[in-house]
Amino acid sequence: MRQAMKFLTSEIQEIRDAGREWIHRTLQGASDTFSRVEGKEVIMLCSNNYLGLSNHPEMKKAAIEAIKTHGVGSGSVRAIAGNMDLHEQWEERLAEFKGQEAAFVTSAGFTANQGVISQLAPAADDVILSDRLNHGSIIDGVRLTKAKKAIYEHCDMASLDDELRKLAKNDPRRLLIISDGIFSMDGDHAPLDDIYNITKDFPQAFIYIDDAHGDGVMGRNFSGKGLVDHYGLQGKVDIEMGTFSKAFGTMGGSVVGSQELVTWCRNKTRSYLLSGSHPPATAAASIKALDIIEHDDPDLVKRLWDNIVYFKKEIINMGYNHEITAASTTAIIPIIFGDPHKAKEASDLLYSEYDIFALPILFPMVPRGLDRIRVQMNAALTRDQLDTGLRAFEELGKKLSIF
């Protein structure tokens, strides 16, 4: 190793000494409610696979058929020679599902935020106003701009209104307000109706919502169409970003909105223009995911919510009644241990003694003293599996003196 690269050794040691090293366990097979992890059969409680679609037989069938007709790769970026009919069908189906004019698909949710945000407000006379707890991919997208950056307090509409009024006095060229839809660590959701109503008074303002954890989970009448649909704000929220790597069970980021927005994205987003397009199997399976949710299995999202309500109620009743747990309104159920060593020990015991896979989330991903295990619900989890998990958490809570 070159002398100039010696910093790697010291920085890795710093991470280990702080107890923050990610140790990747190996999944040996499909991500499902019951999965094989390093030779051990475990109940999966920490997957983003909210609707259980990643191993769905109809999804696999659609992917296999696409491989037969279109091969395993696209051969190029979409702007050159990698734009297949399946990609266009995918975007058309997504726009229809979301009730929007048009849709734009990128390689991942991270690259959607990185590529689109950096172009929406790129100049020094632009302003970006961001929720304090926004996702790291939003933060990275914002860092790529020359815009003035400002923060409003988490889901605090008085703070948003106050910051907007102060920023608008300088007459910015563009005033971009960005928020997660669902906040991935705490599981609460943005009051999008209030955000929309507040920003109506500012002609330079427009809204970007990252609904990665809301897709397939939120929506009126268990539609799974996301937070924008939950508030009935299609056509009013300017930019709705999402992902297929969570509830939809595949891979890829998305932006939906007006036809003008999508045309602009295709010509301005470097993370799209300079990235190879999705394999045909991904596009076909993603189309099928939307069909399953909307038509083939319309009760799928409701089953997810039945599991959410049941598990969260039981967890709180047994003593994990931290205000953050109570405040979660989605499929993310944070179980607070308050100490990184206890959270890690709980995760290790869940795996070794209870055959449950649920990983700890520690500082700096969450504030000090709020170390946790983040349970994520799945529509395919059975009541027996949920009860097995609940019994394990109850025993651990007593063993580790949480309650």
What report would you give on this structure?
Helices cover 42% and strands 15% of the residues. By secondary structure, the protein is α/β, with parallel strands linked by helices. The chain folds into two domains: 129 residues, Alpha-Beta Complex (Aspartate Aminotransferase, domain 1), CATH 3.90.1150.10; 240 residues, Type I PLP-dependent aspartate aminotransferase-like (Major domain) (Aspartate Aminotransferase, domain 2), CATH 3.40.640.10. Helix 2 packs antiparallel against helix 11, helix 4 packs parallel to helix 5 and helix 6 runs parallel beside helix 7. It starts with 6 loop residues before the first helix and ends with a helix. The model has no long low-confidence stretch (mean pLDDT 96).
Q: Tally the helices: what do you get?
A: 15
- Architecture (CATH level 2) name of the largest domain: 3-Layer(aba) Sandwich
Strand content: 5-15%
Low-confidence stretches: none
- Biggest β-sheet description: 7 strands, mixed
Summing up helix and strand content along with how strands pair, one would put the structural category as alpha/beta
Radius of gyration: 22 Å
| Helix proportion | 40-55%
Q: Largest sheet, order of strands side by side?
A: 3-9-8-7-6-4-5
| Average pLDDT over all residues | 96
Question: How are the SSEs placed, and which strands pair?
Answer:
Layout lengths: L6 H11 L16 E4 L2 E5 L12 H14 L14 H14 L3 E5 L2 H12 L6 E5 L4 H8 L4 E5 L4 H12 L6 E6 L11 H8 L5 E6 L16 H4 L8 E5 L9 E5 L1 H10 L1 H4 L6 H17 L3 H19 L4 H5 L4 E5 L3 H15 L1 E2 L2 E2 L10 E5 L6 H17 L4
Parallel strand pairs: 2-11, 4-5, 4-6, 6-7, 7-8
Antiparallel strand pairs: 1-2, 3-9, 8-9, 10-13, 12-13
Helix pairs in contact: 2-11, 3-11, 4-5, 6-7, 12-15, 14-15
